[in-house]
Write a structure and sequence with these properties.
heterodimer, A: mainly alpha, 12 helices, globular, B: about 240 residues, alpha/beta, Rossmann fold, 6-stranded mixed sheet, 9 strands
């Protein structure tokens, strides 16, 4: 295993904060599925089942924050100095962070998916519905949620490298999710709004739920677009990191 | 024998020139003290030597090679930059294990250097609970981890107690006696008078003096007078005390 990857894995394994952050994902999924049923979700409709499973994609906001922490967290604690002293070329650092955090984002997505399936199956059984594990809707929704978890972790690494101030990076990201993309979408109209990153993620994890009339891209196109965003952020992270002064 | 050389190093941050045309050599087997008032460009120079800050002009060479092109930087150069560069939630031993993994250094070295800096009993503690002096010793342990032939240390005595000062002095002398290159940026003139072979004095980003300590004269009083005269801080000092 390359030294840069081993170092990133060891960094992750020796602190608690990132794991607490990732653990929030499955908890949100559990609470979301429970809330959906408790607020009167109809367990006899297939769409309700997909709505429950789509919480996996929503929980990806935590892999996004996790990715931000990977880079901006190092600037915050000053450990980036040691990291660059070990790998003065810096390219290996960014590549290792993308690989390790992308993979961990995938694992988080898998855990969230397992929790979503277990919670949905349990509630459906409790309310007399029949949970359809083998339906295409189930797998398209979970697959989309997993893809969003990975892409958001990579985008997070990019955001953390671009906005090195941890508080500013998290604030900007949460503002984008809660506010900015919604307003921008309204200004642009749905024809253009569907090309924005959160809309792309919705076309992935809500593919079976949102009518095409709502103006989202098809699932495959949303996936390609989000992959494009992740690549763009990864390249930006690389370019801005290589020559920047660390004072 | 790895000599450290700096050739015409210049750094401008916007309109501010932090370091101007700096050239010097830190020879192997000697302790070279790097002196200068606050903000005189010492830290920026060290960061340029370590590839963390990109020079506007000039270059720094370690054994004839820029830091960025060293084959095994962690095993060739040990650096201490500031005492706060730890993740507060990481244990002391784990901090060194991360650096060992990154530098291709055997994991057992961590416990050896912790023992060397007298932190062996605190290996399992999170850095959050460390005092400034303990952080400083952990930083020195990290610099020694790869048993490098070059040590670049920025204010290594910061926060150390009197016993720590004596220990650090012995460490630096021993490193030089082993043929290693030791460059220490510091404000502690009395320590320099006892430890250093060579002295570099900078002021306002420019080198004012480079040479053997004995050229300045014996004793820390002579060193202080020379320092104040060369850095133009004499009037400031007399204003403070007068």
């Amino acid at each position: 295993m390359p030294a840069a990857i081993r170092a990133e894995v060891r960094k992750l394994a020796t602190v608690r904060a990132p794991w607490l952050l990732l653990a929030a994902g499955p908890l949100v999924v559990l609470a979301g599925v429970t809330g959906l049923v408790q607020s009167g979700g109809n367990v006899h409709q297939p769409a309700t089942q997909d709505t429950a499973l789509a919480h996996v994609g929503l929980a990806a906001v935590f892999t996004l924050l996790f990715g931000i922490l990977a880079v901006a967290g190092e600037y915050r604690h000053g450990t980036i100095t040691d990291t660059f002293l070990s790998f003065p070329g810096r390219r290996a650092v960014v590549a290792a962070k993308l690989a390790v955090y992308g993979l961990t984002g995938a694992l988080a997505g898998v855990v969230s998916s397992l929790v979503a399936v277990a919670a949905t199956a349990a509630w459906w059984a409790a309310r007399g519905g029949s949970f359809q594990l083998s339906s295409t809707g189930t797998w398209r929704t979970l697959g989309g949620g997993l893809a969003v978890s990975i892409a958001f972790a990579l985008i997070g690494v990019g955001v953390g490298a671009l906005i090195r101030n941890l508080v500013a990076a998290v604030a900007a990201t949460l503002a984008w999710i809660a506010l900015v993309e919604g307003i921008a979408g309204q200004l642009l109209g749905s024809g253009l709004a569907r090309w924005l990153p959160l809309h792309a993620s919705e076309s992935l994890d809500r593919a079976t739920l949102t009518a095409p009339a709502a103006g989202l891209l098809p699932q495959w196109a949303g996936g390609v677009l989000l992959l494009g965003y992740a690549t763009a952020f990864a390249v930006a992270a690389m370019l801005t990191t290589l020559n920047r002064d660390v004072t | 024998m790895t000599q450290v050389e700096v050739h015409g190093l210049t750094k401008k941050f916007g309109r501010v020139t932090a370091v101007r045309d700096m050239s010097f050599t830190a020879p192997a087997g000697k302790v070279t003290a790097f002196l200068g008032p606050n903000g005189s460009g010492k830290t920026t120079t060290l960061r340029m030597m370590l590839g963390l800050v990109r020079p506007t002009a000039g270059q720094a060479l370690i054994g004839g090679v820029p830091y960025q092109r060293l084959a095994h930087p962690r095993r060739q150069v040990g650096a201490l930059l500031e005492a706060t560069s730890f993740h507060p939630g990481r244990r002391a031993r784990d901090h060194l294990r991360v650096l060992a993994a990154a530098g291709g250094i055997a994991g057992c070295r961590g416990d050896e250097v912790l023992d060397q800096v007298d932190l062996a009993g605190h290996a399992e503690r999170r850095v959050r609970g460390f005092s400034l002096g303990m952080r400083q010793r952990l930083g020195i342990a990290a610099a020694l981890l790869g048993d490098p032939a070059v040590l670049l240390l920025d204010e290594p005595a910061n926060g150390l107690d009197p016993a720590g000062h004596a220990w650090l002095r012995a460490l630096l002398r021993r490193q030089a006696a082993e043929g290693h290159t030791v460059l220490v940026a510091t404000h502690l003139l009395s320590e320099v008078a006892q430890t250093a072979d060579h002295v570099l004095i900078v002021s306002a980003g420019q080198l004012r003096f480079a040479g053997p300590l004995r050229e300045i004269g014996a004793g820390d009083q002579a060193l202080e007078s020379a320092f104040l005269a060369l850095t133009g801080e004499a009037s400031y000092a007399s204003r403070d005390t007068g």
